[in-house]
Amino acid sequence: MVPTVRSPTELTDLFRARGLKVTPQRQAIFRILHDAQTHPTAESVHATVIEDMPTVSLRTVYQTLNDLADMGELLQLDVGTGSARFDPNLENHHHLVCEGCGRIVDVYTDTSTLRVAPRQRQGFDITTTEVVFRGRCPECRSTIPQQGDNDA
Amino acid sequence: MVPTVRSPTELTDLFRARGLKVTPQRQAIFRILHDAQTHPTAESVHATVIEDMPTVSLRTVYQTLNDLADMGELLQLDVGTGSARFDPNLENHHHLVCEGCGRIVDVYTDTSTLRVAPRQRQGFDITTTEVVFRGRCPECRSTIPQQGDNDA
DNA sequence: TTCCAACTAACAATGGTTGTGAACAAGCAA
DNA sequence: TTGCTTGTTCACAACCATTGTTAGTTGGAA
Q1: CA of B57 and C1' of D13: distance in angstroms?
Q2: Rounded CA gap, B79 and B48, in Å?
Q3: Tell me, what's the pLDDT at B20?
Q4: Is the pTM of this model over 0.85?
Q5: Closest-approach nucleotide to residue A22, Cα vs C1'
Q6: Residue of B98, B109, B116 with shortest CB distance to A109
Q7: Cα separations (Å) of B66 from A100, B26, B62, B63, B76?
Q8: Which of the four, B32, B74, B95, B151, has the lowest number of CB atoms within 10 Å?
Q9: Which residue is nearest to nucleotide C16 (CA to C1')?
Q10: How confident is the model at residue B36, as a pLDDT?
Q11: DSSP per residue over chain B, as a string?
Q12: Looking at beta carbons, which residues of chain A come within 8 Å of B96?
C-alpha cells in the first residue's frame, strides 16, 4: 500500500545497466532507502549508514542520492526546512509539513481542480503542480504548543 | 490592482511603533520594496540599494528584510531556487515558477477544493496551503528551449 | 587475472545566511 | 541644541548544506 523505492536488487541492476558500479557503500544506501518510511535528508541517511559502515563519507551519500534522483528512482524535495529531503515515494503525491519539527507526511489530493486563469499564466507552460500543506503534528501541538509560531 | 508592501511612510511609522529605528539605509530599502513588482532576493535588493548608497552592507539588507518579514509586512518564500525570495504581495496567493530562469509570477487560485482525507492528515492541524506551479516562461521556451529540463 | 573507468574519502571551496563586536547614529529628553 | 541611551551598521568571520578536487582504491567486464 505504501509505495517505495525499488528493491536493492533492482537498483543494483539499474546501476549496472547505466554503467555505474555497485559498491558496498551504495548497497548499504539502497537498503536504507528501501526500509525508510520517511523523507530523509542526506545527513540522516549518512547517520544510518555509518552505523554499519563507519567510514562512508557524507560525500558518497550525496553522490548516490543524486544518482538515484537523476535516474528518477528518488524524488528530491525542498520544503524550506533547510536541507533537501529525498522521497522514495514515486507516486504523484503532495506533502504535509509540520512547522514545529519538520516532519513530512505524504498526502494524496486531486489538483486537477486548481485553475490558473490564462491571463495570469503570462504565457508560461505549466508542467507540474506541487502542494505543500503546513501545520502542526499531534506531538508538536501537545508538547510544545506554540513554539515556532513566529517563524512563518 | 497589484497589491504591494506598505508605503515607506507607513513602514516608518510601524518601525517606530515597534521601537525600531528608521535609518537612511532602511528607508532606501522601504522605497525599493515599494517600487518592486518582483520577488527579489536579498542579494538583488542589495544590488539596487548600493546604486544610491554604495556603503550599505548585505548584512543590513538581510536584517531589514527579516524585520519586515517578522512584522508580517513581507512574505518570505523558498521555491527551491537557491535563495530566499521576499514577496511584497501580502494577499493570499500562490506562485508560478519558471524552471529555466527562476522567474516567479503571482497567481490567484482557489485552493478550497483541495481535500486531504482525515486519515491522511495523521492528526495534523493544517493551517496553510501553498501551491507552486512549475513550468517555463515564454522567453525560456523560445530562446533556450530545453535547458534545465534535467534538473527536475 | 587484468585493467581501466568509476568510485571513495578527505579536504577544500562554494553560496546563502547569520553571529559578533566596535563604532556609530536615531530619537528622546532636558 | 546637546547629551544620552539603545538600537543599528558594517566588516569580518562563522555557519550550514552541498559540491568540486584529487590521489588512491576497487568493481566488474573481458
Answers
A1: 15
A2: 22
A3: 97
A4: yes
A5: D27
A6: B116
A7: 20, 12, 6, 5, 9
A8: B151
A9: B83
A10: 84
A11: ----PPPHHHHHHHHHHTT----HHHHHHHHHHHH--S---HHHHHHHHHHH-TT--HHHHHHHHHHHHHTTSSEEE--SSSS-EEE---SS-EEEEETTT--EEEE----TT----HHHHTT-EEEEEEEEEEEE-HHHHHHSTTTTGGG-
A12: 116, 120-122, 124, 126
Distance from CA of B79 to the nearest CA of A (A): 8
* Whole-number Å distance between alpha carbons of A136 and A141: 6
Model pLDDT, residue A150: 38
Low-confidence ranges of chain B (pLDDT < 70): 1-3, 144-152
Task: Return per-residue pLDDT of chain A as tens, 152 residues.
Answer: 566 788 999 999 999 999 999 999 999 999 999 988 789 999 999 999 999 999 999 999 999 999 999 999 999 999 999 999 999 999 999 999 999 889 999 999 999 999 999 999 999 999 999 999 999 999 998 875 544 443 33
Task: Identify the pLDDT of residue A37.
Answer: 75
What is the distance between the alpha carbons of residues B106 and B91, in angstroms, rounded to a whole number?
10
CA B35/CA B31 separation, integer angstroms:
6
pLDDT of residue A38: 86
Could you say which residues from 77 to 106 on chain A have a Cβ atom under 8 Å away from some Cβ of chain B? Answer: 78, 80, 96, 98-99, 105-106
- Please state, in angstroms and as integers, the Cα–Cα distance from residue A44 to each residue in A29, A39, A62, A140, B78, following that order: 11, 10, 11, 21, 22
Residues 73-132 of A with CB under 7 A from strand D: 82-84
C-alpha grid cell, residue B127: 493551517
